[in-house]
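hey so i finally got around to running the thing on that chain from the lab meeting. sorry it took forever, my laptop kept dying and i had to restart like 3 times. anyway pasting the input first so we r on the same page abt which one it is
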Amino acid sequence: MGEVSGRVERGLEQILREIAVYKPAYTYGKSGRIEFSFRDRVGEISKLIKFPYSGNPVAVVYGPKGCGKSELSRALLYGAGRAYDRGSSLEVLLLSEVRGGSVEVAFTPGFERFLKSVLGDMGLRYEAGVSLGLSSLPGIPGLASISLPVGVEPRSFDISRASIAWYALRRLRDGADHGKDYIVVVDEFRGATEGELGSFAEKVSDHVGRVNIETLSRFNSTVELIITTSDAIAAREVYRSTPKFRKLLLWNLAKGDFVELVGELLRLGRLEDLSHLAGNLNLNPGELAWALFGGNVRELLEADTVGLKTWIKTMIDSLRKVAIEAESQGVTIEAFLEHLKRVLEDGVETIGSKPFYNLMLGANIALEVVGSQPISELPGERWVSEMYAFQIPVYYHIARAMVSRGELEVGYSEVLDVLESSEDA
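ok and heres what got predicted. didnt touch it at all, straight out
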């Protein structure tokens, strides 16, 4: 294993050098695209690539919606593609959803012959329209992608991608190249039922473990399967890491990296609402962004697209809907507000009371931390605990505003009031 570990370390170093120049692109409605530097995820990428050598080569990666799971997967593919001609041992296959009822299969060259075989065997399951072409990721030599029309139901996406992943891994057992390290990523698996993700991970882990042992024995090569999800309910049903697979928690960007990103976007002429509000509140824009978004890049960009005031109102509505749904189950609004008060006074670790917690999970407001192995450093903030957390801190501040007024009907100005008096901003 020492030889394999050393090879992976060298491949990791090559990939990280390439990822250092990776710039994701984001489309701002009618105002076009903007590119900004991918922020430091060295620790997370290192742990993802190296974790098979300390356990079973299957991982379920979850975290706050918009924390960067998909972007990290694309960065991993980008780095592997860029490092391919430099002799990197790492091969990456990324199975993603794309709009228009199709699945995108993007891969480094080492996966091509396996995919041709797999898609040949699975051909009758798909309609005509499969096409080879350049990856949607710009500037990556040696990568290709396939767009597979499979329908619009989420379950169709999950089954199709899981099937491709599984059959590709099986092909590796009989024909892997010598001295390669294969990583298959199924991005954003949800499942039709709450427990389907956990069931899939449980069922596939034994098989992938055997494939890894045989591939290592025959070809001195390794295989790894990574499954990501943003569905907080589905992640909770994957109860905890087991000897069969790892449950890994990826968090939002660390504060320093996030504040640095805010500065870059300000220099690019974005985040005008945030800058204006920070001036009115006599706050640093980076600190205000951290108090609202907690390192969540997707929500930061969404707020910049729709307007900060509209975004905060949407977040208020999300928490209000949880209370209304609880009321439909026989729980009073007063009980909901009392629950929020207890969370604020006793800590976020008390958020796990039913039915509120289940509803907050379903709305991607809260997240279960316990039972996971964090691959990110969790922030030492009041909205995060070792048991549970708010996915982004704006919900914590909205809860403060609701409790302060004793009602659900709070608005943008009430949230600003608690922000202005907050130690977090």
